[in-house]
From TrEMBL, chain B:
Subunit structure: Interacts 1:1 with ECF RNA polymerase sigma-E (RpoE); this inhibits the interaction of sigma-E with the RNA polymerase catalytic core and leads to a decreased expression of sigma-E-regulated genes. Interacts with RseB.
Anti sigma-E protein RseA N-terminal domain mapped to chain residues: 4-82
The protein, known as: Anti-sigma-E factor RseA
Residue segments, region Disordered: 180-200
Lipid metabolism found in the keyword field: no
Bias type Basic and acidic residues, positions: 180-189
Sorted UniProt keywords: Cell inner membrane, Cell membrane, Membrane, Transmembrane, Transmembrane helix
Amino acid sequence: MQAFFDVKQRTARAVRLLFLTTLISAAPAVIYAQEDSQREPERITEPNLSVAEAPRQNLSGLEWLERLAQINRTSNFEVSFVLTRAGQEMTPYLWRHAVLEDGLEAEQLNLQNGPGQEMIRLGNVVSVFEPDVQPYSIYASAISGPLPSDLLYNPTALTDAYQFITIGRTRVSGRAAQQLRIVSRDNKRYNYQAWLDEETGMLLKLDMVDLQGSLLEQIQVTAVNVSEQPSPYFSRINPQALPGAVAMTPKPRQHQWEVKFLPVGMEEIKRETRRLAMTGQVVEYKLFSDGMVDVSVYVQPAQDSLDSDVVLRHSTNTFLSLTNGQVQITIIGKVPPQTAYEIAHSIGAAGE
Amino acid sequence: MTQQHEKLSAFMDGELDDSGFVDSIKNDSESLAKWRSYHVIRSGLRKEASVMPEFDITAQVAAALDQEPTVLAPKSKWKSLPVVNKVVPFLRQSGQLAVAASVAAAVILGVQQVNQQPAAEEPFTTFQTPVIPGMPQTGMAPVSLEQSNIVPNNRAGDSDALLQKRRQINALLADHEQQLKLKQAEEQSQRAAESEPNQP
């Protein structure tokens, strides 16, 4: 009788033990299931793009960039990227874009290292917050960051100066990507390679290479999140608290000189006469742009100029300064030194 | 007897709540021997056995302990002096600290070495004499753009000129950057002024 009870007791214990072990082994599975359900909303959701249905293999370079422009204008996304320049530390950026409920476009670009720099765009007003400078707002249809705004929003404006060549499929940032080359039509400027996400059309990587093909600047996207809803960040912006936009009324000036050589597709977008903020020198100034790069031309009297000619590279900018008789001519921009030299030497008196 | 053994076995497994059973074993020498050998067997089965049954020395140890004289005044050692006792662990600790600190220093040194820029003296790269037709090669002077960079003061006149030059180059570069930021501002403000006449 006693033995029988022993056996019974032991069986009961064994059953209890079995139950416990199953519980313990099942518990992690339950936890994993919970984690999975938490991760769910963070996944990239494919937006309903009409372009996405088209066969992507047959898209031309320009069509790829138009797809990029469309998603950049119409979707809600959050992109992290790093900017690397030869011989410099890399700088990380956070870039958010959203279309708010009232149809207003909102954009944010944040420099993530150091004291930082924050630029917020609501519609056509860009507010800039940076250390040591009073916050200010200006009118602009895009934030001027490390990515050329025409490439992101208006690729057709680039077709005069550059051609787009599709290279093929590769893998970038862990995603299937389409590789494009952006080549200047006259070989007078640096060239680019762009990688676009096949699924969403987002930009994943952009390289700027010199004419020999060595890398000057690289933008590498590290995270992309395209979402249905705008990021909660934008709901925290109080438009009333942003500085009021300053209107910049252009004062067109007549200069006694003009630039006679410009790379194909480059146009004058600004000319004025003003004082330099740091030294107070009076300069005559023209700004040229082809959509990807901007070139500044300064002309100033030779008496308060540098006493010798200077060519140097400041990060990716070429700085070229020539003293030509009575005037000093300075060219600054992301162009090869040969091109800067050609531009400087083409400057002559207006009307000749 | 077999029932007794079975009870003993159950007791060892903790499955018997009979408190009187313990007393019944204590008074039974055969049961006590069984009790001990059961434990040795269990340890053996669990591969914990450090004592084999034939090497059971517990009895001898107990006898030896009984015979040992009691020491009333133990011989004092230098380590047991209160001051030494406090200093020695401190010394030992500081030695460990020193080792830890030297490891940290080595780590920092290593990081610095890894992070070292190839050309720290040169904040930018001047062009390796680009071949431009018609341009004097000697006219290209390398100029540092780093404002915080201190110019060696060996020749006062030269450094003044250099500083002046740097200031001018910096002014132009800063102006260029500023213009790029404001590039879009003008045409956009025109448009904004047209759409909102009340805007300042």
